[in-house]
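User: Last request for today: this protein with histidyl-adenosine monophosphate, please.
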Amino acid sequence: MSFETLPGFRAFYPENAAKRAAIFGLWRAAASSFNFLEYDAPVLESLELYIEKSGEEIVGQLFHFEDRGGRTVALRPEMTPSLARLVGAKANSLKRPIKWFNIGEHYRYERPQKGRLRAFYQFNADILGESSAAADAELMTLLVHALKGFGLDATDFKLRLSDRDLWLFLLQAEGLDSTISLAVLSIIDKLERTQREKTIEELTSVMGESAVAFMAKVETLVAIRDFPALEKYFSRLALEKPLAELIEARLAEWRFLLKALENSGVSEFVEIDFGIVRGLAYYTGFVFEAFEASGEGRALAGGGRYDDLVGKLGSQSMPAVGFAMGDVTLGDLLEKKGLLAVAESSPDFILIIGGEAERAQALSDASALRAAGYSVEYPLKELAFGKQFKEANQRGARFAIVYGSDELEKGVLKVRDLTAGEETDYPRENLIELAKSLYGKVSK
Ligand code: HAM
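Assistant: Here's the final one, the structure of the complex with histidyl-adenosine monophosphate:
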C-alpha cells in the first residue's frame, strides 16, 4: 500500500519550505512596519463558531468531525471568527485600536484547482476598535505595501474596492427587505462566474418580475470604475429622503477613504468595482479584494469591514476591519514573475577533517563557531580530502578550514577561500576573531 499526500494538501521539501519562509518573512516585515502585533488562535474550534458567522459558502467547505469527547469541531477555515472571539473576551482591557496579525494554516474542503487547495496559509491583518474609514484605508495600504514588498507593482495587481452599505441602500430603494437583500448580494457575488441568464433566473426567484430591470441597474453599477461615475449613478436614481441622505453621507465616507488612500500613495492600485460583494456573511461596509491586474486567477487577498461580528459572538460590540492574503495564488504569481527565487542555503564554514585524530579539534571549533553565530558543517564520516573539498565546493560554502595532522602540529588554522581558490595559514589561538575578519568584521 502506498501513501500519498491527500488531495489539496502539500508536502514542503526544503526548496519549497524556503520559498514559504520567504513569503512569511515578507508578510511579517510588512505587518511590523505598520506596527501590528502577532497573535494566534487554535486550529481546531467548535463547529458552532463558523455556522452562521462565516456564511453558507465556507460552512459547506468545513473539515468537521466529532471528537472523542462528543464535541462537534472544525478545522479553522478562516481566522476572523476566532479573532473576534479573542478580542471580545478581553474587550475592556485591550488598548485600542487593536492592530493584530497572524500567519497560519487554514483548511477548506474545496475542489482542489489552480489557486485553490484544501490547506493553505493566510496572512491575516485586522484593526478592531476603530470605526473611522481611516482604519479601512490603513489596512488597504498595508495590503498594497505587503504585495509591493514582493517586488510587485501596479501593473501586476489591483485592489478592487466596493461597498456593501451602498449595495444595501440600492436594494432598499428597490423595496427589498434585509433577508432578500442578502440573498441578492450572494447572487451578485457570483456574477462574474455565472452566465447572465442564470443570474437573472436566480434573481427572479428571490425578487420576482422586477429582476430583469434590476439586472440592468446592476450591470451599470458593476461597470463603474471611478468615483465621479459612482456619484453620478446614485444622483440619477433621484431617491427620496431619508435614503438619499444616507447615500450622501456614505459617499462622504468614500471621499474620506479615497483621499486617505491618495495621501498614502496607493491610489494607483485601487479600482472601484461593485462586482465585489464578498461571500462571507459578516461584512458590513467597504469590502475589497486584490487580484492580478490581468484579471486572471482567483483573488490574492480579500477583506473588509465587519462591525457586527464581535458583538454577535456574545461580547460587547466593536467595529472591525481586516483582510487575509493567501499563499497559493500569491506564490503562483511570484513564480510567474520570477520573484520567488530563493538561494539554496550554504554554510559559512565547512571543516575538512583529515582523520579521527583531528576530528576532536574540529568538533570543538565547530561548536565555538556555531556559538558565535556562524553556520558550520563537517563530514559525519571519514572521507578522503579530495572528496571533502569537492563537496565543500558543491555546497557553496565560502570558506573551508582544514584539519590535517600538519596544521594541528604547527598550531595553525588553514583557511581555504573556496571562491578565490586560495589557502592561508593563521595562528590557531584566535578562531572567532579570524571568522569575524573573514566575514568583514560583521559579527553574525
Ligand atoms: P477569503 O476571501 O475567504 O477571506 O480568503 C482570503 C484569501 O485566502 C483569498 O483571497 C485567497 O487568497 C485565500 N484562500 C481562501 N481560500 C483558499 C483556498 N481554498 N486555497 C487557497 N487559498 C485560499 C477570509 O478568509 C476572511 N476571513 C478575510 C478577513 C480577515 N476579513 C476580515 N479579516
